[in-house]
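Render this sequence as a predicted structure.
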Amino acid sequence: MCNLVAARDTLTTQGFVPTGRLRPLDVQRDLLAVADLIALAFGERLDAEGHSLIRHMRQAARDRRFLRWAARQGEIRGMPLSGYVWEEEGRIVGNLSLIPMGRGRRRVYLIANVAVHPARRRQGIARQLVRRALEHVRQRRVTQVWLQVDVDNRGAVALYEALGFRARHRRRLWRWVGLPDPPQPPGLRLTPLRRRDAQVQQAWLRQAYPGEIAWFYPLDLPRDLAPTPLGLLRRWLGQRPVRQVAVRGADGETLRLSLARLRTRSAYDALYLAAPQLPATEALALAGWALCQRASQPVLLEVPFAEDDDRCYPAAGFALHRDLLWMRWDGALS
């Protein structure tokens, strides 16, 4: 299940104490009300993936077998089965999902789905929800919490900063929209990714995708994308359908760029790009050309090129989908 990870208009009046009751999420009775609240709070900001989340939540809320199972589980890594709600006169007007994450022995929490009813904003509800979530995490001896927020949601960013979160990474997602008349780069060939490409591909992936948020990606980057028997085994065991191609020079050997496309259950496939020693302009142009040759389900590309390279994306057939800020809290409760 995918998760919205942004807050809506949560900056509050200094010293204002909201009325109502803060309590833990009860999956069996709250899930449908929470889905409706998220849909209302995010409104036009919901993209296809967000609408898919809402549909899944509403379907799950009507599945009694799932609800009984979820109520017995408590916290499950990667699933939004825990969190807190704000209730007024029997109605849920605030929500926060608290998702245990991590890889291996590393444990972190992800705050997601922070939503407040439009009529109850700027009353301190989001602040109380986040503070309670941080207390929850500290009680479990986990000292790192992450969240994502839209860059232009200045009220939410200010609130999180006041509670001890600090910006760590900018996350831009670019949607492939295609090119009406794609250019034909001279002397290029599309081939399968080969085992001898592994060293170059793995080195660039490690550089491109920050290690401290590696737990967030659906793949264990870069190991799950290695074009080796071990990488193939890891993808098969993890049931991760990945298709990889290489863009090569005219000699058919020189690796210019590799693309890995992960099939997902959301509205978009995930696209990972490895371009050893290429500037962003050239790498994106090659990626756009390769996608024109192998167009299928919509994809989202996440590549942390420098901000001053933004103009390269539209020229290569990509449109900005989301502009998010990764923020991290490291254990100091404000």
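Summary. The domain at 21-171 is CATH 3.40.630.30 (Aminopeptidase). The first helix runs from residue 27 to 42.
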